[in-house]
# Entry
Amino acid sequence: MMLFTMLSRTFGSISRALTAGALCAVTASSANAAEVTVQNDSLAVGGTGSVQAGFVEGESAAAWLTAPCNGNIVAVQVFWRSVFGGSPQILGDTITVFGDGIFPTPGPVMTSVGTPSQPAVFEGPVMSDGVINEFRYLDEQSSIPLRVPVVQGQRFVVSFKFFESPGLFDPSVVTDTGCQAGKNSIFAIPGGWMSACAAGITGDFVIRAVIDCVEPTGACCIPNGQCLDGVTSSACTSQGGVYRGNNSTCATQTCPEFARACCFSAGGGTCQNLTPTQCTGFGGTPGPAGSTCSTYVCFPMGACCLPNGQCIGPVSPANCAAQGGNFQGHLSTCGGVTCPQPIGACCSATGFCAELSQIDCNGIPGATWKGVGTTCADVNGNGTADICEAAAPCPGDANGDRSVGLADIAVVVQHWGQTVPPNTNGDMTGDGSVGLADIAVIIQHWAATCP
# Structure
């Protein structure tokens, strides 16, 4: 009873209406959109609070707070106010972030992570009268930011310790007008940690924390029916998916199938929006995830660039791919595309080599194109491309691959009826023209190979 009577007198409060200009903050940096201020008090601008003038040197006021999200504590706040205002700045002893304990005693001091990691303790905080003082850095140089990891629902304690005893009209910590059980404690001398409400404190301490919340993750059902773990709600939505809730996992979710374009070749080609299971069940071919019949082309037709540089069409993408070609897009035409020409070694009479298209090589006087895919490699290291080195004639070899077959017939057909430099572009007889006689030479040496 003697202890309670002394504490009741010591922690008596002086109430004063706070004007609109009194409740403001001194901050070290601006808050971003993810930051949330965590508080027990209900004190607002223009509200009525109490200046707690009964503390003595070495005592502490502490607020028990609960994290509303996963994230990091990045700042602490203390409302410091005198009855009349205008008092000079003073030093506090410390502001400490404790872990959860058994009320009213806080747990161990929490650790601020980073380089270096260190206890979440602000030494000698400078307190300004009439404002909410905010602290974000653990050192005077503002180089070590506070960063204490917390998870949603985790309880922690922010405590302010007095360096000197405030006088009756000096600034001190402030409370609102209703003390909530289990959310405020004091360290008294003597007595140690005890409930602030039981000790006679008439409100909740205006001692707060700022948490930089990390967006929670969960399972996400994307349009192809797959389930992705560890996805944020916004990332899930951006993929056209359905977010299954914070902390959900694919192990406990069954994702619904989304409708997509379904193509039917029968009946001249039709499209219906169906789920993949429905589509294949009816004999159709599902389009890609997210496709619809209004925008997806089930049976595209267009130009196709073949490996030899020719253009054919209109053909389907499958037909084009079967010939090793590159489909140019739905409704494209050969008149509207320029197919890349095949590249091969082009040799001059002196043995110089460059990899060019056949058309470019044929435009160089005295140069000989060695065929599709040939290169200027100098494997024997003698300074001349191997393919440009003089070799014994290979009768019937029109494309320069030192073997005789269909590819050589194709060269002759490509230049049929043309007048060309002797022994080039399908001229197997050396008469400077391409025709039946050259076909005869190829047939005569059919399947021959030359060293």
Summary: The first helix runs from residue 2 to 10.
